[in-house]
Amino acid sequence: MIEEIITSGRMNPEIDPMLHVWGWEIPFYLFLGGLSAGILIFSAYFTLRNRQDELPIAVKWMPIAVPFLIGIGLISLLLDLSHVLYAWQLFTNIRWESPMSWGAWTLMIITPLSIAWVAIWLEDIFPKWDWKFDEVKATIRWLKEYRRTMAQILILLSIILGMYTGILLSAFNARPFWNTSILGPLFLTSGLSASAALISFFSKTEVEKRLFTRIDIILIGIELFMIIHLFMGHLAGTQVHIQAAHMFLGGAYTVPFWVFVVGLGLLLPVFLEILELKHKFVPAIVPMVLVVAGNLMLRFIVVSAGQASRWLY
Predict the structure, then answer these.
(1) CA-CA distance, 195 to 58, in Å (whole number)?
(2) Tens digits of per-residue pLDDT, 156-190?
(3) Contact between 69 and 186 (Cβ < 8 Å)
(4) Residue 36 to residue 55: CA distance in whole angstroms
(5) Domains defined for the chain, CATH in brackets
(6) In angstroms, rounded to a whole number, what is the distance separating the alpha carbons of residues 45 and 192?
(7) Which helix (H) or strand (E) holds 165?
(8) Could you tell me where the DSSP H helices lie in 236-267?
(9) Pick from 233, 275, 204: which is nearest to 60 by CA?
(10) Contact call for residues 182 and 229 (beta carbons, < 8 A)
(11) Residues 220-258: pLDDT tens digits?
(12) Does the pLDDT at position 134 exceed 80?
């Protein structure tokens, strides 16, 4: 039934009531996936730049959270499934035209790889730890020999993971608001922004804190550009796309989106981070919470608005 809806591109009154309505689980999963991708991209990129000692939080510490974030995201995804016992079939079949298949296989590869990536830095993170098992030491030494190769693979897989969270929605042609190619890059940029804000907050050195504050400002600027492009694309499209855009331009999603996502989640954090760079006192937790909450709200609103938009019939 769902496949018929997706491929047809047009809602049928007899099919529409059967469409599953997503709750909090899917946007929460999309958020954690984007956040995990952002953390891994920064860690792998600055490893390739040989800045792991200069940026220890970004490269060594933050990736520890990734396996847990992915695990929680998968649990929330399973909670949304109607037939949980059949979920394993996603990992036994490959459908190149299916974003869900791409996402499932990417997660299956990136999860153990992220654990191996954490293992590489364990001796740096816990230098006084007594590694009694020679097999563990040998495994870590072997992994370190392939550090740069792992970093390159992680960047590629993390980009796929970050974009897939948006492409998954855009594949639903029957939902006009989702039917745009900008969602993939938007969700990737959003995940990078949230991870940059977290790294900046937890950083212990001024160099690392200021670097990721600047990165977050740039990413928020790119995110704002993409949001503008999203609505310009809808307003230049068909009547149903124009109606989908109007949900945010005077409709039900106007206040939640422009106040909580754009205002409090993007513009206000940029202003506070600029003040930070000018050495003005700003509680570090405030812009971090605003950015992370804004990114989470973005996914909730996009998922909800997509389900509310529909083709005319």
Answers:
(1) 9
(2) 999 999 998 888 787 777 788 988 889 999 999 99
(3) no
(4) 18
(5) 2-308 (1.20.1630.10)
(6) 12
(7) helix 147-170
(8) 239-246, 254-255
(9) 204
(10) yes
(11) 999 999 999 999 999 998 888 899 999 999 999 999 999
(12) no
